[in-house]
Amino acid sequence: MDQIRTATRENDAQHPTAEGRPATAAETPVREGPVGDGLAGRTPSEAKRREPLWRQLLGGSLRARRTERGETLDEVADRAGVSPQYLSEIERGLKEPSSEIIAAVGSALDTSLLDLTLDVAQSLAAVAPAAGSAAQLSASQAAFALAA
Prior knowledge:
8 helices
């Protein structure tokens, strides 16, 4: 926590407010995402240029599948054997679930680990730089690469 506060104080002078005064810690855009996400000390523009985390893309896929089915967090969490709070944190990309939890939630949504992995691989391919990158892989090649 002290490291985050220190980084915030160091960045205060770099992010003046509209009035021209140094920003307070509460006004300074130092980091985005949960603690431990590797974004501490970065400005929002630097953070946005980074490739998304696997857990964030997985969470988005799970949430999209759940809402597409018209189900609540409570319904899916109950079938998966996890708490609604934990499922919400997974969907928001705040938790790094084990493969067993991913399989349980996927099963509760009538989907497989392969389908979820393909969703993540396709999302990564969509945001990866186009020139000379793995984004040129087919979805099956990307899923195989992720599994390896």
